[in-house]
Amino acid sequence: MEERHLSLSEVAELMEVAERTVRRWIKSGRLKAYKPGRDYRIPESAVKEFIERSEAYPKAQAPLPLEDSEQRRHAGVEGLANIQALVRRRLSRFDREVSDPESTKFKSATLATDWLTDVQNEATDWITWGLNDAVASEASTVDTMRAGLWALGLIAEIGRIKRLAERRIQANQEPPDELARKRAEVASRELQEAGRRLQEFQAASG
Q: What residue segments make up the domains of the chain, in order of their start?
């Protein structure tokens, strides 16, 4: 049987990320794809392999809509717990990478800046997933506050990792290339925007 192939937009919808994020995964070699014409085609097996390798949290793993509001709330709490467990593992990995003097991620300022961009983009995705779960599950005010406090703590933790990474970037003799620097700036703004949306959501739910 011929394997099913997905488009860029289909993978983006599945993973609940922007198409440019999927394109970045492809260009970095993290997600296998080919381009027979103008558009990328991604084998379904490559998507499954990417999810297993990166511990991503795709939309397809989210629970189906539940009619009972209490069931939805419990599903949302469970969904947030899954995201939090994933984030703890990823933050631990980021900490190891930024602290390892032999890490290949920091062999040049450009590589380090690209790594920092990916870290910030992942954090933005995590916050977006958490907000989506809270909205879809009709989370209670208490659950929303807990989710909000967790997300604010996440932003603070990413900020700490960012400062460590920037020190290593500055220690390089050669500065990062302009494109890498601009990508990092965009990622930083998007993370700040996710934090702003979180605060608005909390205010509206309070």
A: 5-54, 66-205
